[in-house]
């Protein structure tokens, strides 16, 4: 029966280095990291008055203390609960209330901190959960203490991973030691991870992609360079130079990362940039765009980037990360599909050429080892290849369910596959993901995906930083598509962009029942993982339209009725 402390501590060696450039901490070898973690486990036990915590939250920015704290919890047979950072919340009080809800839902016994979030945030959080010990693990204790032997593992919870809540309230995914072991093997299969590889990562460790990729590096005994998310966001070209200099070979990221670097490159690329060591770049966590893959390759090929290093993949916390992936250095595969054939139950209709009513859909590759993928209907019945339906998954890495949710409400089919809520199809045994089931709206009898709408809106000049959200809204018994987009323009100019958005949606999707709302920059809510929070956007729309808005930064425009599309 696997226990992660035993599994990972046996995997590391002196060459397994953890380097945290932005925190200017000295690199730590694998054996030294585990020795520090064992002493930290003793400190946690003492702070809990000798009572072993069953579940503890990790409330820290990326760094050696975060990794060490996670390992210390594994040593204590305690489940780790990664906690999102405050950036996605509306101030210290809102963040403290969020942590309070998570602490109650997960029945936390302690919070681990290291000072990286600042005393103001930590004090607000501590006040919100006065019954919990808040344990500072910035430095490990000097002396080791006797600890109870490692036990448990197997089907016991190792991590409770809270989903980001882009379309609903966050839920705790229970991930066992056995799930993690199988998930790390699946990551290794999808990336072809080998002993000479090295991980470079800026993703936050509280996010599933950041957490499990970091654990995969430990599992394979390889080097890890761990940056802060802000290092990349604030100075993308400088960060890319540091990544290249680290000679890292593997990097996971969402699609926006690649777009962001292409945009930054327009201001100049260092002449000495050398990306030749980079072997696998995962592109997942949000819809993958072929234009992003091609633009990134075109921009950085002169700087040593080898062809098809960046590969589309699909994964989720419930699968302990990876479900499918393109094979490194193989050609991208995409299909041009008639948008009218992308409703659940439809067989896709391929198009010979691009056009306003055609969508390019990128393959996320075949299923990785240990994962079963099928496309099913609402009752869980399997659909034929080329038919659109829900992505359903099974296998050893897949969770047994959500924390505290009754069995009747767990999202599983009758034969035990997890219903992901994502919509896609299989073609030549490869997975193509279209969007989220909850992000699909029926407007005048037609199905539309919020992701499709948002992609078209983002390409409209005048949409600030490509920030927008789309969702369905009932207006006097008729469902419309609402688009909220951020703008720095005044009222009249913003209204003109709103008209352009509606015209483009009519041309590309045949979608005529549209309302647009322009709001000030930084108004839209985002999840902790950087995705637009459509449920929060709907709340914003409700607030903005409940009473007349007399400022140029909130401009509502409505499409004329016209014939149904």
What features would you highlight for this structure?
565 residues, alpha/beta, Rossmann fold, Luciferase, domain 3, four-stranded mixed beta sheet, four-stranded parallel beta sheet, 14 helices, globular
How would you characterize the overall build of this protein?
- It is a single chain.
- The chain is α/β, with parallel strands linked by helices and 565 residues long.
- Among the domains are: 4-19 and 30-180 and 206-221, Rossmann fold; 328-395 and 411-438, Luciferase, domain 3, CATH 2.30.38.10; 444-558, ANL, C-terminal domain (GMP Synthetase, Chain A, domain 3), CATH 3.30.300.30.
- Helices cover 30% and strands 24% of the residues.
- It has 14 helices and 26 strands.
- The chain has helices at residues 4-9, 30-47, 64-75, 92-106, 119-128, 177-191, 208-219, 229-234, 236-245, 255-265, 290-300, 450-458, 491-509, 534-546; strands at 17-20, 25-29, 55-58, 79-82, 110-113, 134-136, 157-162, 172-176, 198-201, 223-226, 250-253, 280-283, 310-316, 321-325, 334-338, 358-362, 371-376, 389-395, 418-427, 430-436, 440-443, 446-449, 468-475, 478-486, 514-519, 555-558.
- The strands form 8 sheets. A 4-stranded mixed beta sheet has the order 2-1-10-9. The protein has a 4-stranded parallel beta sheet with strand order 4-3-5-6, covered by helices on one side. A 4-stranded mixed beta sheet has the order 11-12-13-14.
- Strand 3 (55-58), helix 3 and strand 4 (79-82) form a beta-alpha-beta unit.
- Helix 2 packs across helix 3 and helix 12 crosses helix 13.
- The longest helix is centred in the C-terminal third of the chain and has 19 residues, at 491-509.
- It is globular, with a radius of gyration of 24 Å.
- The N and C termini lie far apart (58 Å).
- The model is unreliable at 547-554 and 560-565 (pLDDT under 50).
């Amino acid at each position: 029966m696997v226990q992660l402390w035993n599994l990972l501590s046996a995997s590391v060696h002196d060459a397994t280095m953890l380097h945290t450039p932005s925190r200017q901490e000295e690199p730590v070898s694998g054996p030294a990291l585990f020795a520090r973690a064992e002493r930290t486990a003793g400190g946690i036990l003492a702070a809990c008055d000798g009572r072993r915590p069953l579940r503890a939250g990790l409330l820290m920015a990326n760094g050696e203390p975060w990794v060490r704290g996670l390992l210390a919890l594994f040593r204590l047979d305690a489940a780790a609960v990664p906690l999102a950072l405050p950036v996605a919340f509306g101030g210290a009080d809102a963040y403290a209330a969020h942590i309070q809800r998570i602490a109650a839902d997960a029945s936390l016994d302690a919070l681990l901190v290291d000072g990286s979030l600042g005393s103001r945030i930590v004090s607000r959080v501590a006040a919100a959960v006065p019954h919990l010990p808040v344990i500072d693990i910035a430095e490990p204790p000097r002396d080791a203490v006797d600890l109870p032997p490692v036990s448990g593992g197997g089907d016991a919870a190792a991590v409770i991973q809270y989903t980001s809540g882009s379309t609903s309230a966050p839920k705790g995914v229970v991930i066992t030691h056995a799930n993690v072991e199988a998930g790390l093997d699946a990551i290794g299969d999808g990336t072809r991870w080998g002993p000479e590889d090295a991980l470079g990562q800026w993703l936050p460790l509280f996010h599933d992609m950041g957490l499990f990729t970091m654990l995969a590096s430990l599992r394979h005994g390889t080097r890890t360079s761990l940056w802060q998310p802000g290092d990349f966001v604030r100075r993308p070209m400088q960060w890319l130079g540091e990544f290249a200099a680290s000679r890292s070979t593997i990097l996971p990221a969402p699609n926006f990362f690649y777009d962001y670097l292409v945009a930054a490159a327009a201001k100049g690329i260092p002449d000495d940039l050398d990306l030749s060591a980079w072997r696998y770049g995962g592109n997942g966590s949000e819809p993958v765009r072929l234009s992003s893959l091609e633009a990134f390759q075109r921009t950085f090929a002169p700087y040593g980037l080898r062809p098809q290093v960046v590969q589309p993949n699909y994964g989720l916390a419930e699968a302990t990360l990876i479900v499918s992936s393109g094979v490194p250095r193989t050609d991208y595969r995409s299909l041009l599909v008639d948008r009218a054939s992308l409703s659940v139950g439809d067989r896709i209709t391929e198009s010979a050429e691009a056009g306003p009513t055609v969508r390019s859909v990128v393959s996320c590759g075949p299923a990785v080892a240990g994962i079963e993928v099928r496309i099913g209907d609402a009752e869980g019945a399997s659909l034929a290849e080329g038919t659109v339906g829900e992505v359903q998954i099974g296998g050893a890495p897949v969770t047994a369910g959500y924390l505290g949710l009754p069995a009747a409400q767990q999202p599983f089919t009758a034969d035990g596959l997890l219903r992901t809520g994502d919509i896609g199809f299989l073609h030549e045994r490869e997975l193509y993901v279209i969007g989220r089931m909850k992000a699909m709206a029926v407007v005048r009898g037609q199905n539309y995906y919020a992701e499709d709408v948002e992609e078209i809106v983002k390409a409209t000049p005048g949409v600030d930083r490509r920030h927008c959200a789309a969702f369905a809204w009932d207006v006097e018994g008729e469902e419309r598509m609402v688009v909220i987009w951020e703008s720095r323009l005044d009222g009249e100019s913003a209204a003109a962009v709103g008209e352009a958005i509606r015209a483009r949606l009519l041309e590309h999707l045949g979608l005529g029942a549209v309302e647009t709302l322009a709001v000030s920059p930084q108004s839209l809510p985002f999840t902790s993982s950087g995705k637009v929070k459509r449920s929060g956007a709907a709340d914003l729309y409700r607030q903005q339209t409940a009473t007349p808005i007399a400022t140029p930064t909130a401009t509502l425009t409505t499409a004329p009725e016209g014939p149904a599309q």
